[in-house]
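Slide 14.
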Amino acid sequence: MTHSSEPITSAHALLGILVRNGIDRVFLVPGESYLGVLDALHDFPGIDVLTCRHEGGASFMACADGRLTGRPGVAMVSRGPGAANASIGVHAAQQDGVPMILLIGQVPRKDLRKEAFQEIDYQRMFGSIAKWVHEVAEPEDLAWAALKALRVATAGTPGPVVLVVPEDVQQAVVPPRDWVAEPASPTQPAPATLARVQALLAAARRPLIIAGGAFNAPGGRDALRALAERHGIPVAVSFRQHDIFPNTHALYAGDLDLATQAAQVAAFDSSDLILALGTRLGDITTQGYTFPGYPRPAQTLVHCHADAHIVNQHFTADVGMIADPVATAQALAALPATGGGTARGDWAASLRAIRERACAWPSPPAEDGVPFVSVVRSLAEQAPADAMICLDAGTFAAPVYRHFPFVYPQRLMASQSGAMGYGTPAAIASQLRHPASKVVCLVGDGGFLMTGNEMMAAAERGLPILFIVSNNNCYGSIRLHQARTYPGRYVGTNLASPDFTMMARAFGMQTEHVTRPEQVAAAVARGLASRVPYFLEVKTSLAAILPAGADTGAGIDLLRRGEPARA
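Slide 15: predicted structure.
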């Protein structure tokens, strides 16, 4: 749509603000409660409209797109059921700390707060997970609300914003607006604070960087690496941020995740200085608020984050820095090196040795299917340098977190919310945003049947995504917890699955069904080489993920119903 001084509709004003601020794609499920906005989209050919099959898929895509661009990913849904379905992506965006805007149509203003058809009070519904929830009261305010939504979603700790637009607010005549939300200048660390941190670094023998998602920003990875190399400081990445520091680097010490080995945590805890940069120090990164010590760490703690709400929220810092972590890393990297002598080199080497032992590839025996770790290993050996690995939630993903050696521009796309169903939508959003990269979606049989229908977008648009479904006929992660806590008492975790390869063929995809370990490498190679969507179903071992000697219980529920367990 070309800019004009002539009056326009409020929906056009909304979309105009989005376009002027870099929004070029929206993910939506259409609904009658925002027909006015849908109509206006017709006049904005520069906005790519991806029509989704479920609002959960649309919101997951917006969440992933926000992570990739640093701009808010935008999802549009109808009121009531549509908003309820989309809430999972809002929660994921909040947990991941990525910018997102969810636009929801609403009942006409005259029907508000009357318990009208499909009406929900979205402030009450989303107030605890969204950074801002706003119901637009007047057509003239729609452009202003869009501008503020963009600012709020990207400020401080990025996160989701919910914009609620009543039906009768969308097509009123309003003046055009040409507003741009200029990003705030990065907050620079104070010189006196830098001098203090430099003195702490000079005195430290066993410093450790805990690096968070703030380094997923332009120049962030380079700044982190320069800081680590300048001062010889080992780097541990926070929860599911593997791609911000090269995993093959001598200073890479590993990740702080759901299954970080006790030996690694103990080694980290023996540090004498922690630089927590760009991380919220949440419960998983801090291993349930046990590392560093809660609330007063035994080590000297320097905590740097752009959001004042985060610093000193859980752990009392010796040096609390309300500053941009990337700018801070750049400033620290410019200081005279403090890593002379052998002590720090020996410290880094000891952490690296522990990491290498932890990430050594296992070869578990299995008679009930392919150990999925062999699939991940083959993928790691063959993946191109720009591969984007999009993970759903489940035990199949554990080998990726522990063993896959990410080196940017390889990317890990995995939600910190732990929500099943993220993988397929994230793969769609990733391939659309990076069409030249190879995108691989790894998903379990449970998660695939939650949002796998969104792979229709790959078929429709010819996106060359490699989908790999790990099928063990089970909600594996919950079965693992059952085996540990209530051994042999398996309820609710067996799954009867369809023939996934037949499903994929119905979507028009090339498919393979892998049932033996010796088939894995060649199948992965064909999938990676494909220029069209490619689908692998892998019959994976349930025994390989359970404690040694545990009864899998596989097929029990099916046999009780007189149904055959699928081979």
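Speaker note: The mean pLDDT is 94.
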